[in-house]
Design goal:
Helix content: 10-25%
Radius of gyration: 21 Å
Strand order of the largest sheet: 3-6-7-8-9-10-11-12-13
Number of strands: 13
Number of helices: 6
Structural class: alpha+beta
Order of helices and strands: EEEHEEHEEEEEEEEHHHH
């Protein structure tokens, strides 16, 4: 299967904002039956979320938001919902793209195989809905217009620093490559990732904790009504404050630091005034709807909202053991220096050789991490998921 990131039975209908969203467990034809399925029992209108000992709606457990539904609606799609047949066809098409093999002998081929370690989306629990995009507002399923300031900030955060680019010094290497924080470079909002889109939620009096399988990031959400600290106090994942509105947990997060990088282009250029409003609501015994609204007037022409179905899954989640990006830095930088030396000695081959050798210097650490994780953490859910994040580059 590809080294790149990423027939229905039963059905679950839930009403959200006046619209009925169909969700069902999926296993794609031609794939091994390693997926976990979600209960197809339809929840009645009177279904109520269970309560914790202190009386709060219970959302704790192991969850995944693994999906093929894209954040933005495709250019060739002009409707909000697929038919069931169209959704299945779209999932098969995306699975075929995921299955595309890399070219042997290239830098891209120096990596572990996602299928071998149980990382393809069709190999785990996956609940799809009929929406053609995760974005529900604006209604066209597209991101609002971004400002020039957003673009400038995004370019500054992802453009390799001169003179030697990201392999010039340790500080230039992206935080995701160094396994400092997960979520494809930034774990907020909780949108699906290429793999490891799994979470554990734990509730206690006054707090909610969310553990991400990717990198093992942890969020602590206070429900005690504390004010936000001054704007100058920032954290990688921001600072969260939450409260219950009926059966819905509403969480506001701000005070993000300015080092939002990685491949989440939708938030890569947001400002220090960026605010995230999240809503978590159980919709059935094995399903939960997550909704995220991004509000940053200096970045977007208007706020925008995405809706992501979550499915309950078997636990536990595993330690990702992503540390290759740190102990492998010496090899990565040594490979870059070798490429520069060879480029100086043979200018005619400078560009392709430098690019290929820098990539090759970095790629093996991913393969080693994935294989070590898979071998050590084998087991029911495709072993490498426990240790694969070590090779998430």
């Amino acid at each position: 299967m590809s080294h790149r990131l990423i027939a229905a039975t039963g059905g679950l209908a839930i009403a959200l904002g006046g619209a009925v969203v169909m969700m069902w467990p999926v296993r794609l034809a031609g794939q091994a039956d390693t997926s976990r399925t979600v209960s197809a029992t339809t929840s009645s209108a009177n279904w109520k979320a269970p309560r914790t000992p202190d009386g709060q709606p219970e959302i704790q457990g192991y969850w995944t938001n693994n999906t093929y539904t894209p954040l933005e609606r495709a250019a060739n799609v002009n409707k909000e919902f697929f038919t069931k047949e169209e959704a299945e066809a779209d999932a098969r098409r995306r699975a075929a793209q995921e299955a595309t093999q890399t070219t042997p002998g290239t830098t891209g081929d120096v990596h572990y195989d996602f299928t071998q370690f149980g990382l393809d989306r069709g190999q785990g629990t996956r609940v799809e809905n009929l929406r053609t995009s995760l974005i529900i507002d604006p209604p066209d399923g597209k991101l609002p217009a971004r400002s020039a300031e957003f673009t400038a900030r995004a370019n500054a955060r992802r453009t390799p620093r001169a003179p030697g680019g990201q392999y010039d010094t340790v500080k230039n290497i992206p935080i995701g490559s160094r396994c400092i924080i997960g979520g494809v470079g930034q774990p907020m909002p909780m949108f699906p990732q290429g793999y490891n889109s799994n979470y554990q939620i734990v509730q206690g009096p006054g707090y909610v904790m969310i553990l991400y399988e990717n990198i093992g990031d942890i969020r602590i959400i206070s429900l005690n009504g504390e004010p936000f600290p001054p704007k100058e106090v920032t954290q990688w994942m921001g600072i969260s404050r939450g409260h219950w509105d009926g059966d819905t947990l509403i969480v506001e997060t701000s005070n993000f630091n300015e080092r939002i990088e990685g491949r989440n282009a939708a938030i890569q250029g947001v400002s220090s005034d960026f605010k995230l409003i999240e809503r978590f609501k159980r919709t059935g015994p094995n399903t939960m709807m997550y909704e995220a609204t991004i509000d940053d007037p200096s970045s977007y022409a208007s706020p925008w909202t995405a809706q992501v179905p979550f499915a309950m899954m078997d636990g536990p989640i595993f330690e990702p053991a992503c540390h290759e990006g740190n102990y492998g830095i010496a090899n990565t930088l040594a490979g870059a220096r070798l490429a520069e030396k060879q480029a100086a000695e043979n200018p005619a081959a400078a560009q392709p050789a430098a690019a290929d050798q820098r990539g090759a210097a970095a790629a093996p650490r991913g393969g080693a991490g994935g294989q070590r994780g898979g071998g050590a953490r084998g087991g029911a859910r495709g072993g490498a998921r426990g240790g694969n994040a070590g090779g998430n580059q």
